[in-house]
Amino acid sequence: MTVDLERGGAPEAARNRTFGPLYSRNARAVISRGLLATRSTNWLVMLSGFFEPVLFLISMGVGLGAVVGSVQGPDGGDISYAAYIAPALLAVSAMNGAVYDSTWNVFFKMNFAKLYQGMLYTSLGPLDVALGEIFLALLRGLLYALGFTAVMGVMGLITTPWALLMVPASVLIAFGFASIGMGITSFLKTFQQMDWINFIMLPMFLFSATFYPLSVYPQAIQWLIQAMPLWHGVELLRQISVGTFTAATAIHIGYYLVMTAAGMLLTTTRLRQLFLK
Predict the structure, then answer these.
(1) Using CA atoms, how far apart are residues 140 and 120, in angstroms rounded to an integer?
(2) What pLDDT does 127 receive?
(3) Do the beta carbons of residue 143 and residue 130 sit within 8 Å?
(4) Whether the Cβ atoms of residue 2 and residue 271 lie closer than 8 Å to each other
(5) pLDDT-derived band of residue 84, with 50, 70 and 90 as boundaries?
């Protein structure tokens, strides 16, 4: 198999297959490589990302919850403050897991390890790489969701079988953040630029009705919060946690479906522009 240097080193076979240079149906190779790397070097980092929202739940839900008392839930009934913030923190946990893998991890592989450039010199296409990396981010989001849901169960915060749907809903949230996060990271070249990710995530975490209802904010701030992706995840998981489903539930799901599709398109396009010129 020869390499055509004028086309950025993409193999001739990759350009002649059904989907052209985009997809070789071998994302599992990227996934296998990522799992091996995680098992050998990154598992401690993965654990640290899980404990942050758990500690928030214990400190805020139990500590502050003793002062706050009961609050109004999505169904209009009274629930404990811990039960109110737990689904929100589950959404945060899914976001954290997905964003770490699809931003900082991707940033290092793209700009320092030159891993994607090497992958795309083989028969792999940019869509294979995107699907493989996003799957790894989803896997991390799933593990966080399962662990956090188990903590909620131990704390007595799961009161309906519908709450088990929070796990697949968390994967959907992770999918949205992972796909768009990888695409955005492809534009960033320095550590200073990467700091903007934390600059954006922190306000989302604090102001996406995570700890307080949306009604406490001025109307203009409410509109801004409702445009944030995390708010839709928080509201979706809160509704599921008490088994209450409305038209807004479909809107929240649709938001993440659109976010995922846009992120996949952006990521695939960027990888092709960068490495298959």
Answers:
(1) 24
(2) 79
(3) no
(4) no
(5) very high
